[in-house]
Amino acid sequence: MTLQPLTRRDAAIYLTPLREGGSLPAVVEDTDGDLWVVKFRGAGQGPKALVAEIIVAGLAEHLGLPVPTLALVSLDETFGQGDRDPEILDILRGSHGVNVGMAYMDGAFNLDPVAVPEAITADFAARLVWLDAFVMNPDRSARNPNMMFWSERPWLIDHGAALFDHHDWSRVTPERTGRAFPMVEQHFLLGHAGGITDVDAEVVPTLTEDVLSGAVARVPDELLFDPTRPDPLVGSDGAAGAAELRARYVDYLVRRLEGQRAWATEADAARRRRADAPPLPLKARR
Q1: Which residues lie closer than 8 Å to 112 by C-beta, 6 or more apart?
Q2: pLDDT computed for residue 232 by the predictor
């Protein structure tokens, strides 16, 4: 499949913060009247969390995993300045320019596989575990599953913590790139997944360099490299510009798919261990 470029929107009204998220995203209305859950570049995780959001959402789309529509939402210097919350004001003042919005899903609720078991198939769970191991996403635990149920299907949200190697490219060696991802043991859907090595054999040939480049290409220059901004992470690591940083992401993803892929083998071993484990006694489930 060919990923479509992200549309650009202009923020008009700050409606309400979503305090469940550590980065304090908010529901924002744009100038066309559409609603977005916006994650801000001025939040604690910085612009690289937004880069991860875009790249991982593109990979999920390629794997047939539902993600809400994303858009690039721009804030001008006057946006939200009437808010009286100093924490919100601080974030907004650091978020002028491009941010990332996720289409607001009215009526969506946190997914509980026990409540809607028909929503989670073994193939869906295996693809999701595989993806999260590939991009090293720690935010899919039972405590923090980052999955919503809306329009009779599950949706994946909040991938800002993935690709954490990109916070310090200087430490990324070939050995580090190909390493396993032990946190997969805590994956929310590990016990629901079918064979992860089967998914690996199916999807890796489809994730060509062109596909990976397409996922990275949707990240705008402003989030990768903007020497006029004070963001400490934008344009870091000695890169000469946005094109060089994009190439670095693509090379990293290509290399992670090469060879034996210890992270996929370990994910499937974790799945088998979960399946073989005796059920918890009732008092331990409460």
Answers
A1: 149
A2: 46
Decide which of 103, 122, 139 is a domain's last residue. 103
Q: Which domain holds residue 94?
A: 7-103
Q: What residues does 98 pair with on adjacent strands?
A: 74
What are residue 17's DSSP bridge partners? 26
Residue 140 and residue 58 share a domain:
no
Let me know whether 162 and 259 are in one domain: yes
34 φ, ψ (degrees, to nearest 5): -85, 150
Q: Under a CB-based contact definition with an 8 Å cutoff, are residues 100 and 52 in contact?
A: no
Last residue of a domain, one of 80, 103, 126: 103
pLDDT in tens, 152-203: 999 999 999 999 999 999 899 999 999 999 999 999 999 999 999 999 999 9
| 253 CA to centre of own chain | 15
Residues 168, 96: one domain?
A: no
Query: Using a CB cutoff of 8 Å and minimum separation of 24, what contacts does 202-209 make?
Result: 203/63, 203/127, 203/130, 204/257, 204/261, 206/62, 207/59, 207/62, 207/253, 207/257, 209/250, 209/254
Adjacency order of strands within the sheet including 147-150? 109-110, 147-150, 153-156
Quote the CA–CA distance of 212 and 24 in Å, as a whole number.
29
